Amino acid sequence: MNIVGKSFCLVMSGKNYWRVRAGINGGVLQHIDGYRKRVLKEPEKTLGVLNRGTDYAASKPPGHAVQATPEQVIEKIRELSKGEWSFKNIFVATEDAQALEKMKTAFGNRVKYVDQKRFVLQKGEYIAGQKEKDTWKPGDGWQYGADYLCAMVLLSGCGFFIASGSCTGTGLMQKLTPKGQQQSYIFDLGLYQ
User: Fold this and answer.
1) pLDDT tens digits, one per residue of 110-149
2) What torsion, rounded to 10 degrees, do the Cα atoms 140, 141, 143, 149 define?
3) Which of 144-176 are b and which e, b meaning 16 or more Cβ less than 10 Å from the residue's Cβ?
């Protein structure tokens, strides 16, 4: 169920809720709610994974947090699943096409995700620069933004959370998550030099 106000949106699923402070387009809210119903059926038994890759991994921007590789994230998921973290499903948020494929290979049909535009970038390339390439067509920017917000809201509703490192998405997701609702692990591998 969603409750929408002029300056906020309250997204509810069972006992879980997320208050998003913004005037959010009704189409975006429907987009989020549709995915919530399909991929976050048991939020308290779902591990949310934010795997920041592509431009960070390829270009290693100085002063930004080093991001764990998909292999490191997969190993941490396996390690935590043997301990106290008891989850059934894995919701993966990433713009990195290769990272998603590695997660699907490692965990099969347990992996859920938003069907969004994903990238494979080379050193020196950034997602923002993809608009100039033939890979973007009119409307992609709006859809990319809606998919990003959808993924962040869904991550905030998961009972467990792993991030490949600090980034804007990690900060946004933490702001959307009610305190004490989620067990989390965020890689801290230092800063790119």
Assistant:
1) 999 999 888 777 777 777 666 566 566 777 778 888 898 8
2) 150
3) bebbbbbbbbbbbbbbbbbbbbbbebbebbbeb
Residue with structure tokens 């905030």?
156
Closest by CA to 16, choosing from 161, 184, 181, 183, is 181
Tokens of 82: 């043997």
Distance CA 127, CA 114 (A): 18
Q: What tokens were used for 128?
A: 């923002």
What is the value of pTM for the model shown?
Answer: 0.83
DSSP-assigned states of every residue in 56-80 = HHHH--TTSBPPPPHHHHHHHHHHH
Extract the tokens encoding 164: 């490949």
CA-based nearest residue to 187, from 170, 168, 172: 170
The pLDDT tens digits for 16-69 are 444 554 567 778 888 988 999 999 999 999 999 999 876 777 778 889 899 999
State the first-to-last Cα distance of the chain, in angstroms, to the nearest integer.
Answer: 45
Q: What are phi and psi of 117, to 5 degrees?
A: -70, 130
